[in-house]
Amino acid sequence: MLVGGIGPRTLRLSGEVADGTVLNEVFTPEGVREARRLVAEGRAAAGRDAAGHRFVVYLFAATGEGAAARLQRELVTAGVADVPGLGVAGDAAEVAERVRQYAEAGADTVVLLPTADEPDPRASSGSWATTYGPW
Predict the structure, then answer these.
(1) d(Cα 108, Cα 35) in Å, to the nearest integer?
(2) How far apart are CA 130 and CA 124, in angstroms?
């Protein structure tokens, strides 16, 4: 079972009862590290081993012409434009580097969310798949 959460209580609860945690697009790599710490607290309190608990993180991603502006509009729409470090805008290599940062922070899976106004979602998704390959 996976539990989605953003607050400390829910993240600890996820550690106590779930096999994994889903973090939405308001988490930076540093936020993932903090979430892992809170989940580990919950697992310890429940007498559960921290190994095997998976983390899924959502990440806004924009590529191609106007990527930075499209990402900014998405962050404004989501009400998180004032949070530094959210999302990634750039070419496939820049997106891949950002995904690596999330992986290094403890994300097992990073779900790339194209912006709502992505001009060619199929092309951007294809370039991401080619760049990353199987994770």
Answers:
(1) 13
(2) 10
pTM of the model as a whole: 0.88
Q: Please name the residues in contact with 108: beta carbons below 8 A apart, sequence gap of 6 or more.
A: 20, 54, 55, 56
Q: How much is the pLDDT for 127?
A: 53
Residue type, 20: G
Helices assigned H by DSSP within the chain: 8-17, 29-45, 67-78, 92-105, 121-132
Query: Model confidence over 19-59: pLDDT tens digits?
Result: 999 999 999 999 999 999 999 999 999 999 878 899 999 99
DSSP 104: H
Write the DSSP symbol of residue 6: -
For tokens 């690596």, what's the residue? 100
Nearest to residue 4, comparing CAs of 28, 21, 26?
21
